[in-house]
Each structure stands twice: as C-alpha cells, then as structure tokens.
Amino acid sequence: MIKYYFKITVIFLLLSNITFAQDLNGESVFKTYCWGCHHETSVAFGPSFESIANKRTVGEIQGHIIAPKSTYKQLGHKRSVMPSFKEKLNQNELDAITSFILKYKSN
Ligand code: HEC
User: What is the pLDDT of residue 18?
Assistant: First the structure.
C-alpha cells in the first residue's frame, strides 16, 4: 500500500513539474521576445494576446510567428511589421508561447 502511494506521488510530482516548466517557458519566451510589442490583454504595438486567442487557431498563430510575411494579409493586416521568429524559437518554445497566448482566450 505504501509503495502504491509513493508511486502516485512520484507521478503527480512529475506531471505538475512538466506543466509548470511549460508555463514558465511560455512566459519567458513572451518576456524575452514579444513583450515590447504585445501585451496580454491590452493593445500595444501589435494586437493583444487575448484578441489573438479569441479568433485564431494554433496553426494560424504558429504560422504567423514563423512566417509573418506570408500570413499577415490572410489575417487581415495591412502592413507586415512583425519580424519572423523562425531562427530564434525551437519547436518547444513555439508550443510554449502558443499555449501561453491561448490561455488568454476569453470567449
Ligand atoms: C516589433 C514588434 C513585434 C514583436 C517583437 C512581436 N510582434 Fe507579433 N505582431 C506585431 C504586429 C505589428 C502584428 C500585426 C501584423 C504584422 O505586423 O505582422 C503582430 C501580429 C502577431 C500575430 C497575429 C495577430 C493576429 O491577427 O492574429 C501573432 C500570433 C503574433 N504577433 C505573435 C507574436 C509572438 C508570439 C511574438 C514573440 C515571439 C511576437 N508576436 C513578437 C508586432 C510584433
């Protein structure tokens, strides 16, 4: 029985750690690369993460972060000002920042 509780605890700790690491990572990507132009819920130089989360899919968000020059028109923007983060972010960081953005979905 004790062994069983121990296993459950270990699994729980592992899982909560993974979630925690992902959140932390998303937030640090945000602060390092996006914060100057995007804020969580208010419009800055670029649209707020809340407005993005409310209308875009994971594919649209990641497509824009990687190749903004090829997606901005489709997303309804007149100008393309945002730089591409293709060289700066690996897939884990891209997934982490995408989950971070989607956390602000409010509708
Ligand atoms: C230099 C300023 C700047 C930086 C830095 C920047 N963005 Fe942007 N972002 C913009 C602007 C301006 C737009 C509007 C369209 C465009 O210019 O491409 C935009 C658009 C977007 C969109 C699409 C918006 C829509 O209509 O759905 C996403 C998603 C996005 N940014 C995510 C990010 C993420 C994630 C980061 C950090 C890794 C980031 N941006 C960094 C300025 C910036």
Answer: 61
82 touches 37 (CB < 8 A): yes
Ligand 1 neighbour 67 (Cβ under 6 A): no
**CA-to-CA distance for 80 and 15, rounded, in angstroms?**
39
For residues 51 and 54, what is the distance between their CA atoms, to the nearest angstrom? 5
CA–centroid distance, residue 35 to ligand 1 (Å): 10
CA 2, CA 103: separation in Å to the nearest integer?
A: 37
Question: How far apart, in whole angstroms, are the C-alpha atoms of residue 74 and residue 90?
Answer: 24
Tell the residue nearest (CA) to atom 25 of ligand 1: 52
pLDDT at 7: 77
